[in-house]
Amino acid sequence: MNRLSSDIILELVPWIDQSEHKTLRLISKTFTAAMESTFWANRFVALVARESVDLERLLLKLEEMRNNPSSSQKIQGLRFNLSVIDQVGMEELCQKVEKVLPEALSKLQGLRRASWIDPGWAIETVTQSLASLPLLADLTISQREWRAEPSPNLPLHHFRRGTLERLLINTSYEDRDGYLSSLSILLAHNPCIRHLELLEWQFPPTIPLVFNELFQRQPIFRPLRLESLHLFGWRLTPEVIPHLRSLRSLEFDGHAELPNLTFWKTLETENIHLRRIVTVPYAPLLDYLDTFSGLEVLAVLEDRWHTEDLKEAEVLARRFYQVVLPKHKASLKELSFRSVGPNIWNVSEWNLEGFNGYRELRTLEVEICEDDIHATSNPEKHIVGALVKRLIALPKFQRLTLRPLFHGREGTGFVGEGISQLSRILDMKVKLGEVVVASVIQVTVDGIRAIYFPEIIEGEIVFKCVSNVYI
């Protein structure tokens, strides 16, 4: 055992009974080191102070980290939430925490991943402490709790070690100019960032942030080699293309920030062929998708603003299903349609043939309108029955998610009738010869998810509802 490399040991571990682990740890230093490394690589230590009563426990934990540096330096993942704001009567304890906090965090010399939720206080202290760590590669800062006022600007300019590879910032900002300057300094000093998510939101909304501004404020001698980019509240322009030449995944939430035709044309010209796209459907995107093949993941988001003209929406939808989508049939693994507005985008009889022949498809998420739900009670003729039969014949398909749309009739009992109708349709029998893989079907509506699993009964596949869960 001592002669085996750690990689081989980690491959063997799943095949070794857990009762034998203790014995192996006693007789093999190599096994002990490999197991310990795996343990810390998959573990997050949590530091939480959401309420005043949490402060005493937090102080004890920080003191333990400070006083045991040999143990602290093994920690590779850290999650913390210091959002407690009501410090009345706890001022002395808060001061103790702020004093111990940088001392404790400085002992985390092996830290690689940090997730900071709802920064509330000690922002400068925490930021400087994290920025000083030599191995930090993955940083998430996320404001989840709603606040009436924008958050103070995060002092991101402290991160200058150049170790970051993945960065997620989800927050509002108090000062637009200060925020852009701070973030631009971070990017200029961390050229190894490969995965970037910037989700900025302001209420009321202000002028959208321009992604290219980040590279104009600070001299960047070497373009970033971003592999994935997720933006909300930012405008993307062709000037940033030098940083996107390695891009494989692009995601946009929202409408006003959608890149224009020039951006997609530039991607085409530069032969940047994305493998994952999450955005709303509009003509410039379809033009781009029509120029190459090989897309693996596509999620079509809500599209109210871009489809006020229903005739234009129909033209886009038909072009998408009949011309664009077939170009990626050999590569698509995940396909999703989420609240795209007009019924023309929903799965229906006219586009049903478009779901044939996806040899790599694993998951599909589609919506179905109320008229199609109630069109017939015959599983052989119902749109859902026909769709399920097509999908379970695909060699790698795993999960179908159906989202019934009832267009504001939820209070009339119409939803209940519709769900009952879908249940009757899904309680269908399929001959084993028609099935390549047994798939899971989920029906999600009104905050409830019904899950149907396939069962083999007398030589046939029957889908049975096994659970209803609130989501």
Provide a compact summary of the structure.
With 471 residues, the chain is of the alpha/beta class. It is 31% helix and 22% strand.
Query: Cα distance, first to last residue?
Result: 47 Å
Overall pLDDT metric: 81
Beta fraction: 15-25%
Largest sheet: 17 strands, mixed
Determine the number of helices (DSSP H or I, runs of at least 4 residues): 15
Helix/strand-derived category reads alpha/beta
Number of strands: 19
* Spans of at least 5 consecutive residues with low confidence: 409-413
Gross morphology is globular
Give the C-alpha Rg: 26 Å
**Fraction of residues in helices?**
25-40%
What does this structure look like?
The protein is of the alpha/beta class and 471 residues long. The protein has a domain at 1-42. The protein has helices spanning 6-12, 21-27, 29-41, 54-67, 69-72, 91-105, 123-131, 176-189, 213-216, 261-269, 283-289, 310-324, 370-373, 383-391, 414-426, and strands at residues 44-48, 77-81, 113-117, 138-142, 166-171, 195-200, 209-210, 228-232, 234-235, 249-253, 276-279, 297-300, 334-337, 363-369, 399-405, 429-431, 440-445, 448-457, 460-470. The strands form 2 sheets. It has a 17-stranded mixed beta sheet. It has a two-stranded parallel sheet with strand order 7-9. The model is unreliable at 409-413 (pLDDT under 50).
Show the helix and strand layout.
Layout lengths: L5 H7 L8 H7 L1 H13 L2 E5 L5 H14 L1 H4 L4 E5 L9 H15 L7 E5 L5 H9 L6 E5 L23 E6 L4 H14 L5 E6 L8 E2 L2 H4 L11 E5 L1 E2 L13 E5 L7 H9 L6 E4 L3 H7 L7 E4 L9 H15 L9 E4 L25 E7 H4 L9 H9 L7 E7 L8 H13 L2 E3 L8 E6 L2 E10 L2 E11 L1
Parallel strand pairs: 1-2, 2-3, 3-4, 4-5, 5-6, 6-8, 7-9, 8-10, 10-11, 11-12, 12-13, 13-14, 14-15, 15-17
Antiparallel strand pairs: 16-19, 17-18, 18-19
Helix pairs in contact: 1-3, 2-3, 4-6, 6-7, 10-11, 11-12
